[in-house]
Fold each of these.
Amino acid sequence: MTIDLGSRPESLLTGHRAGNLEVRLARNEAEIVASQQLRYRVFYEEMNAHPTPDMAREKRDSDGFDPHCDHLLVVDLTAGDNPADYVVGTYRLIRRSAAARQGGFYTAGEFDISLIEALPGEILELGRSCVAQAHRNRPTMQLMWLGISAYVFHYDIAMMFGCGSLAGTDVEAAAVPLSYLYHFHLAPEDFRPRALSGRYVDMNRMAKESLDPRRALNELPPLIKGYLRLGGFIGDGAVVDEQFNTIDVCILVKTDLVTEKYVRHYQRERRGSGSA
C-alpha cells in the first residue's frame, strides 16, 4: 500500500488531547495498518462480519479507498511506540479528491448519492468508524468528534455523509428503528440519497402512529444517535450488507452545527492557553 501524506497541512497533524489520549491524522503507513487491524478486530472478530481470505490471513480490514483517504486516529500516548498498541480509535475520511482517485465514494456502492455529489463546495464521506473495546466511552467519542470538527472546519466542508449500520441482517427484527428513521428523520428531497434499486429495502415497515419515538430512538446504535443529535438526516431505503452482517442506512449531516461547536471549543482552548 502506497499512501501520500505530503499534501496535508501540518496543523492537521497536531492533535487535541484529553488525558492520555490524542486525536490526529495518521502520519505513516504503519499507523494506517494499525487502524486496519483495529477495524478487523471490531468488525470481524467482535461483530461477526465475513472477511475475505486475504483479510483473514492478514487480520486487517482494507480496501482500495485506504491509500487515498485520510485516517483519523485516537492514540493512547501511554501505550508505547508500536502503532498496533497505541491506535485505539479510527475514522476514515474521504473528500471529493480522494473519491475521484478511487473512481467514486464508497457509499455509492449502496446508495444513489448523485444529489449529494451535485451540492456546491466540499463534501466529506465518513466511514469505517470503530474504537477499541477498552476505550468505548464518552471522552473518547468526544475527542474523535473534535478531530472531525477540526477537519471539517479546515476544509470548509458543507455536508458529511456515510453509511450507518444496524447490527444483523434481519429486516423485520429492525422494523422499529428503520420505521422511526423513515418517519422522523428522512432527508429533504433536494439532497436525499436513495438505496440502489437492486438493493433497496423499504424502511417504512410500521405506521408512524404505532411508534413510541423515545423507545425507538433508544434502540438505535450510539453512532446513528450521535448523528441525529447533530441534526442528521436519513436517506430513502436501507441496504442489507451481508459481508458486514449489518443493515445500512445513509446518513447526512449539514456541518453548520459541527463547525460552530469546534470554533467555540477552539476559542476556549486559546483563551485557556493565553493566546490572542
Amino acid sequence: MVRASIIRKLEDIEDPKLRDILISFLEEAERIIGETVTRKEFREFVEKTNENFDRVWKAIGKLTEAQIRTEERLESLAHRVDELAEAQKKTEERLEKLTARVDKLTERVDKLTERVDKLTERVDQLAQRMEELAEAQKKTEERLEKLIGEHKKTREHLGGLSNAFGYVLEDRAIRGLPAILLKRFNMEITEPLRRDFIETDSGRAIEINIFGKGKINGKELVIIGESKAQLRKRDVDKFLNYIKMLDKHLPGEKFLVLVTYQTPLQVRKYIQEKGINLVFSYELPL
C-alpha cells in the first residue's frame, strides 16, 4: 500500500526519465530492506522515506517551476534576441546606405576640392592680373596728371589768347562805338566809353566791359555793353542777368549794346526781341 501510494505520486511526474529513475530506486530499496530489516524497521523506514520523498517532491516542484520560469525567460530572451537581430539587420542596412552616402559625399568633396584648387589658381592669376592693371593704372594716372598739367597750361595759354582777342575787340568797340552810335541813333557821348568797375554794397567790384553815358534828343542814357567773339543765346541771357544785378547800382535808363564778330540768325532775332542793340566788328572803324 505504501509502495502503491508512492507510485501514484510518481505518476504525476511529467518527465518519464525522472519517473523511471525514482521507481527503480524504490524497487531497489524494497529489495534491500526485505533482505535486511524487520517489519517495524521497514515501517519506520517507509515513513522516513515518505517524508524524504515529500521533501524531494517539493524540491522537484520548485525545480519544475524554476525550469518553467527559465524556459519562459529563455523564450523572452530568444524573442529579444530576434528583435536585436532584426534591429541589427536594419542597422546594417542603414549603415550600408550611410556608407553609400558617405562615398558619394566623399566623391563630391573631392570634386569640390578640385574645383576649389582650380578657383584658387584662377584667383592667383586674377590677383597677378590686378597687380599688373594696378601698375598700368598707376602709369596711366601719372600720364594723365602730366596731360592735365599740360592741358592746364594750354588752357591758360588759350585763356590768355582769348582774353587778348576779347580785349582787342573791346578796345575797337570803345574807340569805334561813339561814331556808330552817333550815325545810327544820333547819340552824343557825354561821358567817354571805357572799361570800369562798379562797387556793390557788399564791397564786391563788378567789371563792366563797355561803360559810358550819352544823350539822344536830350535824354540821358547809361551805356552798358559787352563784346564776345561769337554770341550765343546763353551769352545774351547772362548779359541780361548781369544788367539786372547792376540796376540798383546804376540808376537811370540803360542803353544796351553787344559787339561780336559773328552770331547765328536766331540769336540776332533773340537779341532784337530783348531790346538790345547789336554791332558787328566789321562795322567798327579801323
Amino acid sequence: MSDPLNPRYDDDAVTYDSDFYYADEPVNPTNQIRRRPMAKLKLNTSRMNPAQLIAKADIVLPKIAPAAPATPPVPNMAARAAALLAARNAADTANNAYEAAKAGLPSLKEARDATADELRVQHSAMGSALEAETTDPVALAATGYDLADSNAPATTPPAMIDNLQLTAGDEVGALDGSFDPDDLAYTNEVQMTTVDPVSGPWATVQNITTSVFKLTGLTSAQRVWVRVRGIGSQGPGPWSNAVTKIVP
C-alpha cells in the first residue's frame, strides 16, 4: 500500500509536473523545488559556409580547451576538442586550396581561349593548304576534315538542335551554353524561362551565329530552362529539348 508521505515514483496516485522535481525527503506541496529548464545549444552549422564553419571552430576551441591553468567551462572535452581541431584544420586546408584555384580561374580561362583561338587558326591554315593541293573530293574526305555541303539551295528548315548543354559561368549569375549546330541554320535563337519548361512563357534572349553562348545578369540560385532552334532560308527548325540549370 502506498505511503502518502513517501510516495514511490511508480505510484499511480503520484503526478509529476515537468517543471518540478522532488527532493529525497517526505514530499508535500510545500517541498516542490523548481528546476531550471535544460539548456540546449543552437549550432546552425547547416547554414554555414566553409569559412564560417572554420571561424566558429576558432571561437569554440580556445574556450573548450584553454591553455593551462585556465579551466574549461565543461570538463572532459579534450578528446572531442582534438577531433574538432583536426576537422577544422582539414577544412581550412581544403578551403584555402579551393579559393586559390578559384582565384586562378580567369587566367586559366584566358589561356585556354587563347590557345583554342590559335588552334582554330592552324585548322584554317591546314584546310587552305589542302584545298590548294587538290580539289578531289575523295582525297579531301580522306584527310579527316568534313566535306562542305554543295551550294544547292536548302529545301527544308534546319533540323532539331542536338546536345544542348548548360554549365556554370566564371562569375556569379552567369551560365555558359553550347550545342551542336545544324548546317542549314544561318542563325540560332536562344530562349529562356524561369517558370514552366512546358508552357512557358519563353523569352528570346539571344540570336547568335555560333554554337556557343553566355547568359549573364541572371539571379543567383534561381532555376532556369533554356532551349535553342536553328533558323535557315526555309524558316525556323524545331526547338531543342529544354535543359535546366541552377544559376551559380
Amino acid sequence: MVEPLHIGVLALQGAFREHRIMLEKCGAKVTEIRRLPGGSPWGGLEMFDGIVLPGGESTTMGRLLVDEGLLEPLRTCGQAGMPVYGSCAGLILLCREVEGPDGALIEQPRLGLLDARVRRNAFGRQADSFETRLDVKGVACDMEAVFIRAPVIVSCGPSVEVLCRVEGPLGPSPVAVRQGRVFATSFHPELTADSRFHAWFLNICLAWRSAGGFPS
C-alpha cells in the first residue's frame, strides 16, 4: 500500500487551516509546522514531500520564522529541490526582493527562493479584494481565484515561468509563477471549492518523492 503524501503547512500565522483542509481533501497527510521537528541535518523537515506557505501577514510570518529557527532550514530544503508553494504572503516570503505599496524596496525576513521582485498589497486594501476566474498554464482552466490585499510580481528572472497574469494597477502582472519546484500565487486557491491547484501541487510532490527526494 502506497503511503499518502506528507505535506507540511507552515502554521505560525495566517490561513493555514484552509490549505490543510484542501490538501486532505486531495488525499494528503498534513502536519502543521510551528517549530522544527529536529533530529537530522535538515531539521526533520525531510519527513515531508512538500511545504506550503499560507497567506497572512508576511512581516509577522517572517519574524516568527526567524524566532522559531525555521527560516534557514526551510530555505535549505527549497534549495535542495523540495517542492514549496506559497500563496499571497507565502509568495512574498519566497521572493528575492520585496517592495512596499509605494514601490520602495523594504527589508524583511524571507526565503529568497524565487528570483522575483514582489510588491506588497499592490491591489489595495481589504475593501479592494475581489474574485475572478483564471486560466493557469499547466494547472487548470477557468479556476476560481480569490485576491485579498494581494501582492503582484513586478519583475522576475529568466528561470521563472509565468503561469498566469491579471490586469492590475501595474498593468498585466504575473499572479502565478513557477521556478523549478518553487510555486507561488498572489491569489488564494484554498479559499475556494476548487481543489485542482492543490492536486497539481501534490503531483509535483509525488514526482519529487518518486525521484528519491533529498540527496543522500
